[in-house]
Amino acid sequence: MADDATYLTLTADNFEAEVMQSDVPVLVDFWAAWCGPCRIMNPIVEELAETFAGRAKVAKLNVDEEDALALQYHVMAIPTLIFFQNGERVDTVEGVISKDDLVARLEALLTAGSAV
């Protein structure tokens, strides 16, 4: 992964501040290096980070390194993508999903957030 990645790398140390206290929607990709479908999703997640920079956060959480967080959010399969808004889990997707579907879900959260 590039050092200039626009996505966040989440750990137990920064999860609370970056996700639960975020004032913008957050998409968290729960993944692992050995996971084939995760490797398929990786470039899509990186593109989303660039597309939504400044409007939403896109983050990756390695389940092998942060297993307690994966358990806390009941991640039973990877990749699992969880959408957070105002510190609340609002949507979850498991497995490979299209970029267009993810864009639509993030746009819907941004629209909902601006209506408040």
Automatic annotation (TrEMBL):
PROSITE patterns: THIOREDOXIN_1, THIOREDOXIN_2. Residues 1-111 form the Thioredoxin domain. Gene3D superfamilies: Glutaredoxin. Keywords: Disulfide bond, Electron transport, Redox-active center, Transport. It comes from the Bacteria. The keyword Zinc does not apply. Belongs to the thioredoxin family. This is Thioredoxin. It comes from Leptolyngbya subtilissima DQ-A4.
